[in-house]
User: What shape does this take?
Amino acid sequence: MSQSAVIDIRDVSKQYTVKNEVLPVLERLSLTINPGEFLSIVGASGCGKSTLLRLLVGLDSEYQGEIQVGGQRLIGTSLDRGIVFQEHRLFPWLTIEQNVGLGLENSPWSSDKKKQAIKEHIELVGLTGFETAYPHQLSGGMAQRAAIARGLVNQPSILLLDEPFGALDALTRSRLQGELQTIWQREKITMILVTHDVDEAVYLGDRVVVMQPRPGRIRKTVNIDVPHPRDRSDPTLKALTEEVRAEILQVSPVN
Amino acid sequence: MSAAAASLTSPRLRRGLVVPLLALVAWQVITHYKLANVHLLASPSAVLKSFVVQVKEGELFSQLLASLRRDLSGFLLGAFAGLLLGSAMGVWRIADRLFGPSFDAAKQVAVFAWIPLISVWFGTGESAKIVFIALAAFYPVVVNAYQGIRGVSREHVEVARAFRFSRLQTFKKVVLPAALPSIFSGLHLALIYAWLGTLGAEYLLAPAPGIGNLMIDGRESLAMDKVLLGVLLAGLVGFSLNALAARAEAYFLRWRVRNA
Assistant: This one.
C-alpha cells in the first residue's frame, strides 16, 4: 500500500437534524495527524468522537469543512484506511481466516500473497490454530483480535479504531492494549484510537486529543512524551493520565 | 454409530414415538372389539393388508410417485418465483413499493380461494395442480426472503463498505449469507405448504394418479382401509419432507450458534 500520509482535518462541522431540530455534533474541528503517529481521541460519550472517526473512515460524508489525506480530499472509504469497530463485526457465517480474508477481497495481490498475508496476520494477533473456527466459538477478546487482523491484513497505512476494547473485560483489555502497541511499533503505520478510557488513551497515544461535548470540539491536546514500549507504572505516564482525566471531569461534572 | 442411528435411539425420538404407538394400540383394540363401526374405521391390520396389496400391484408406488412429482414441480416453481420476488423487494426499494402492497393484499386471500380462478385459467389438469401448489409454496418464500434481506445488519454492510465491496459483492458476500437462515425457513415452510397443497389440488381439481386419488377412490368405494392408508402416507411423506429440510438447513447453516 501507499506511503503513510498526513491527515488534515480543517474546520469540520457536522450536525444531525432530529424532529426539525438541528443538533450540532461537531463544531469547527481542526486537527493534523502525522504519518506513523498514534493519536488517541478521548472524551465522554456524546462528544462526537465516534462521529469524527466515521468521517475519517469515509462511512459518512455529510459534513462541512474539509478532510484531506495526503493532500487529497477524502471521498468514501479506502483500502488504505483499515477500521476496527467496537463490536468485532465478524461475519458469523465465515471462519476466522475467511473473515480476515474479507479485507483482501478487492486487493490486487495474487492468491498466494493473500494466503500468506492472512496467515501472517492471524499469527500477528495470536490466533494461530483458530483459522477454521467460527466467530461464535471464540471469546470476545479473540473475536476482537480477529477484527484487528482483518483491519490490518491489506496493510493499510492508517488504522482507525473505534473503542475497540470497550466491550471487553479489564484483563483482556489491558492485554490487547499491550499487543496493539507492539503491532503499531512493528507496522509503523498511523493509528487513530477513539476511546472513553483515559488510561488506554494515554498508555497508547503519542498525543491525546481531549474532546468536549455539545457541540463536539477539541478541548485540549496533550503530548505524551514517553517512549514506547511503555510501562503502565511510569510516573510521567501516570501524571499525564491524571491531567487528561482532570480535563474530562471538568468538562462533564454531571456525568 | 451413524447420525441417523443416533437419532433413532435418542430419548427425544423415543418419547416422540410414545403417542403414535399408544394410538396404534388403541386403534387396534377399538377395531378388534368392534367398539366402532368397522365400515367407518378400518383396523390397523386391514390398513396394513391394503398397503401390502397396493404395493404388490405396484399401484401405491406409482400413486406416491405421481404426488411427489407434482409436489416437487409446484414447489420448485413457487420457490423460484418467490425467491425472485422476495429478493427483488428486499434489494430494490422501488420493487418493494411497487409489489409490496399488492403482495400483502394477495396473501390475505386463502390459497384455496384461488382454485376457481386457477381452474378457469389453467383448467383442472396437471398444470392447474402445479400452479396451485406453486402458489402455496410461493408466499412463505417471498415473505421470508424479503425479511431476511431487509434484516441484514447495517454493521455488516458497513464492513463491506469499508472494504470497498461493489453492490454485487455486498449482495453475494453479506446480504445473501445473512438472509440465508430466513430464506431457509421460507423454503422449509414452502415444502410443507406445497405438500398440503398437493393433496388439496388432487382433491379439488380433476382426478389423476396420486395419494389424493387413492383416498377419493377409497371414500367412493367405502374402502376405509384405503382412505386411512392415504392419510398415513400423507402424514409420513410430510414428516419425511420436514425432516429432510431440517437436515439440509442444519448442514448449510452449520455456522450458526447451536442453542441446543
Q: What stands out?
A: Chain B has a mean pLDDT of 86. Chain B has eleven helices and no strands. Residues 2-41 of chain B form one domain.
